[in-house]
């Protein structure tokens, strides 16, 4: 037991400082909401006017655009449009011609072409934007392509692109992250009273432990008889 106690003390010296640094930086990171960390609270929102792009026949739909991104699909430039109401559509960038949503066969072909092992499909399921699976968590109409090894590939029905790849490891990491930040519902809230309280208590305990190690060492030195 004496040997174990000595090992415990030396291991405490070895890992004490990293633990204090981890707890201190963790407390710092959770002390502000993630939206403030990202600077989202500084962004000004203003209605966007109807948009006409020079050199293209694309025009904004009746609802003003919130976002437009251009990507290459099947060898042509495609514009993916998102209105301020959250509706997503895609059009041919050169002509402005609307492109149809992807069906199950299109989603299967895209996954087989773009994902290693994407030809080993177990099932394909369409999820509307208001009821997407928890491992996707975005308000977007998607096809969930379930692969044989347990990977979920999400293909945007109206974007024509792979929006997310969720492996089994990703889902395990997601659970671990939720436990780490103590938010099992959304896995996003990194600044809430429970987490801040536990981080502060843990940091206090680690600092007190480091102080006690110094006092214990001084007490042992003082207790030695003079040679």
Describe what you observe in this structure.
Helix 1 (about 1-30) runs antiparallel to helix 5. Helix content is about 40%, strand content about 20%. It has helices at about 1-30, 35-40, 105-115, 170-180, 195-225, and strands spanning about 65-75, 75-85, 90, 120-125, 140-145, 150-155, 160-165. With about 230 residues, it is an alpha+beta fold. The strands form two sheets. Strands 4-5-6-7 form a four-stranded antiparallel β-sheet. The protein starts with a helix and ends with a helix. It has five helices and seven strands, in the order H-H-E-E-E-H-E-E-E-E-H-H. The protein is elongated and about 90 Å long. The mean pLDDT is about 85. The longest helix is centred in the last third of the chain and has 31 residues, at about 195-225. The chain has three domains: about 1-30 and about 190-225; about 40-100, no CATH class; about 100-190, no CATH class.
Radius of gyration: 27 Å
Q: Major sheet: order of its strands?
A: 4-5-6-7
Question: Can you give the mean pLDDT?
Answer: 83
Question: In sequence order, what are the helices and strands, one letter per element?
Answer: HHEEEHEEEEHH
Major sheet attributes: 4 strands, antiparallel
């Amino acid at each position: 037991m004496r040997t174990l106690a000595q090992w415990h003390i030396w291991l405490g010296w070895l890992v004490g400082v990293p633990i204090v640094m981890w707890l201190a930086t963790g407390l710092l990171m959770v002390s502000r909401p993630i939206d403030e960390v990202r600077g989202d609270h500084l962004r000004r929102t203003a209605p966007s006017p109807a948009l006409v792009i020079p050199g293209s026949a694309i025009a904004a739909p009746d609802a003003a655009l919130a976002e437009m991104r251009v990507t290459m699909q099947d060898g042509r430039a495609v514009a993916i449009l998102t209105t301020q109401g959250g509706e997503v559509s895609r059009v041919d960038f050169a002509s402005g011609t609307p492109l149809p949503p992807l069906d199950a066969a299109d989603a299967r072909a895209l996954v087989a072409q773009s994902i290693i092992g994407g030809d080993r499909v177990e099932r394909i399921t369409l999820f509307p934007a208001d009821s997407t699976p928890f491992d996707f968590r975005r308000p977007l109409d998607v096809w969930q392509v379930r692969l044989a090894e347990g990977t979920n590939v999400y293909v945007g029905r109206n974007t024509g692109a792979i929006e997310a790849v969720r492996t089994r490891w990703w889902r395990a990491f997601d659970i671990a992250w939720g436990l780490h930040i103590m938010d099992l519902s959304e896995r996003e809230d990194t600044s809430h009273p429970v987490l801040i309280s536990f981080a502060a208590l843990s940091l206090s305990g680690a600092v007190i432990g480091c102080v006690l190690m110094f006092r214990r060492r001084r007490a042992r030195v003082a207790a030695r008889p003079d040679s």
